[in-house]
Each structure stands twice: as structure tokens, then as C-alpha cells.
Amino acid sequence: MTLAVAPLSPGVVETLTSVSTATLTTILLKKGLRNVWMRGARPLVPGLPRLVGRAFTLRFVPAREDLATPASWASPISTRAAIEAMPEGVIAVIDAMGVADAGVFGDILCARMKKRGVAAMVTDGVIRDEAGVLSTHLPVWCAGAAAPPSVAGLTFVGWQEPIGCGGVAVFPNDVVVADADGAVLIPAALLDEVLKEAPEQEAMEAWIMTEVERGVALPGLYPMNAETRARYDAFKAGKK
């Protein structure tokens, strides 16, 4: 639980903030990764900005009566201790196994994360104290809200270890991008490749959209055939 978090440079954050999660899933699909979109993690409120951060993982398992108690909140292995280990700029990714009747975090814990500079929280579970969580202004992607506390249905067991969130394997230091379409994982080992390809993919799709608006038919345009590629290359050369 002491794994160091490698900070993202401002340039990396700026690049990925300009790329939609839809585009990222396409890039990762071309690399053979089909399972990178975290199911159940939706923006708690509309209009959240696109956010980027290293994954700081937290893991719950099913509740066990001798462990999932209010007293466990004071344990050295607790959500409270995990929050105090979160560095600025990370996205907390919480494996709640999709449990929808026990809130992983409420307003006090979210307020503390916001105070520590955590960029966002992503979970396949639910939050509690929804009005209070909203008042903290911590950006949250989750599956909804429920009144019961986490210990009503979950046992917290650790942080900064591999987890599954929304059916996606998440390792500490992977990169998460979250926007209106949900949260997408970029494996840490593929980050440099994605950074090289993502801006070009966005630019290409923007050009294709202008062609669609001009009335160009889709066959040969999307995906591009050789003729369309040549027109696109000429367009890029003309912009330089």
C-alpha cells in the first residue's frame, strides 16, 4: 500500500484533456484492447469537465460481519487512511463490485479528497449523502446514490493494488480519462504511444466531420481509402 504515484506532466494532461474518451477507446482498440471503459461509472452531474489523472486504486470485497463494522473506519486499513495517502492530481478508482445498495464514500470523505487536491473519483458502485457530495465539488463518476454506508454491504481491504472497476482491470499508475461518456483506462505502458496517436486521431476525425457536413458519402471516407487519405494529407500539408 506504499506504491509511489508517478505524476503526470502538465503537457500530458493538456494533451489527454483535448481527446475524448470515445477517441481513446478507438486508439486502444487498434492496439488490441477492447475492455477499457468502466461500466457503471457515469458522471454524477452533467457538464463535468474532461479530467485526467493517474489511477489511485481502492478495493472493497463483500461485507463480512466481523470486519464490516463502523469500528473498522478507525482501522489502519481503512478508507480514511487511504485518502490520507492520495497525492494531489490522482483519480481515485474504487472497486465496489457494482454494489448499488451501500455508498462507498459520502460527503465528509469526498470533502477531504477535494481538500487534498484529488482530481476526481471513479467507481462502479454508488456514493451516499448525494447533496453533500455535490456541495464538495469533487468530480464524481459513479453508478448512483444510496443511503446505507459502505459497511452495510462492503468490506474495505486495501489501496494501491490491482483492482477491477466496472469490469476493467486497473493497476496503480495506469492513467484514467473521464468525461461525459464515462471513464476510460490507458495502461501505463501504453501511455507514450497513445499520446503520439491521440491528437492525430482527433484531428483526422474533425476533418472527416467537415467532409460529412459537405455532403461526402461515408464509403471511402470513414474509414479512409487511399484517395481520401491523399486529400487529408494535402489538407494537413496546406495548414503547415
Name the descriptors:
single chain, 240 residues, alpha/beta, 2 domains, eight-stranded mixed sheet, 7 helices, elongated
Write up this protein:
- This protein starts with 9 loop residues before the first helix and ends with a helix.
- Helix 2 crosses helix 6 and helix 4 runs parallel beside helix 5.
- It is elongated.
- Strands 1, 2, 3, 4, 5, 6, 9 and 10 form an 8-stranded mixed β-sheet that branches. Strands 7-8 form a two-stranded antiparallel ribbon.
- It contains 7 helices and 10 strands.
- The protein has 2 domains: 179 residues, Ribonuclease E inhibitor RraA/RraA-like (Glucose Oxidase, domain 1, 3-Layer(bba) Sandwich), CATH 3.50.30.40; 47 residues, no CATH class.
- With 240 residues, it is α/β, with parallel strands linked by helices.
- The model has no long low-confidence stretch (mean pLDDT 95).
- Strand 9 and strand 10 form a beta hairpin.
- The longest helix has 23 residues.
